[in-house]
Specification:
The chain is built from 6 helices and 5 strands; from the N terminus they run αβαααββαββα. The protein is α+β, with helices and mostly antiparallel strands. It has a 3-stranded mixed sheet with strand order 1-2-3. A hairpin with a 2-residue loop joins strand 2 and strand 3 (132-138). Helix 2 (40-73) runs antiparallel to helix 3.
């Protein structure tokens, strides 16, 4: 990948590419992105979705923990911790108070299930292999595995050079190219 696109991805996703310039004994990312520019958009969207998923799971976990702490500190006679939870830093209004009292209308208020936070994804290597993208990483969860699999599948029908629709070509060295770039390289 060209240096300017390499730099753009590294700057846009510093958490995912934190090992981009690490020692070769720690990561293969020290060699950068080992493919042409055509897959830039696939990798950009993959990283955007991965980081959004990680941040979302962490926010939801924190929100559930805050709610459960507020609920444990509250009772029918003292709903102030719940009011503060519902306010979440905003000016108190009638709705916050109503919601706090509504929790105790149940016989026994229930704590929220605390979801797991997705571990931060750290890219270990991004390259082309057998004509498709390979995105190797540490961290993540099943959702990230699905996103990565989808991105790798998309690369199998995307020209590695320009990003246009392409197909797998070649014999001893397989590459994914559009008709124009296959013709330029003399590959059928």
């Amino acid at each position: 990948m060209s240096p300017n696109l390499d730099e753009a991805l590294t700057a846009k996703y510093p958490k995912i590419f934190r090992n981009r310039y690490a020692d070769m004994r720690e990561t293969a990312m020290c060699w950068g992105f080992s493919h042409d520019d055509g897959w830039y958009n696939i990798i950009d969207m993959l990283c955007d979705n991965i980081q959004h998923h990680i941040d979302y799971t962490r926010r939801e976990r924190a929100k559930a923990l805050r709610y459960n702490r507020a609920l444990m500190r509250s009772n029918k006679d003292n709903v102030e911790p719940l009011i503060n939870y519902f306010r979440n830093g905003r000016e108190e209004n009638k709705w916050h108070v109503e919601m706090a009292y509504k929790v105790f209308e149940d016989i026994e208020p229930q704590c929220k299930i605390v979801p797991e936070a997705c571990p931060q994804v750290i890219a270990m290597q991004v390259k082309e292999k057998f004509g498709t993208l390979r995105f190797y990483y540490n961290g993540g969860d099943a959702v990230v595995r699905g996103m990565t699999s989808m991105a790798e599948s998309m690369s199998a029908v995307t020209c590695e050079i320009c990003g246009s629709p392409g197909k797998s070509r070649g014999g001893s060295w397989i590459t994914t190219l559009c008709d124009k770039h296959a013709e330029e390289k003399g590959i059928t």
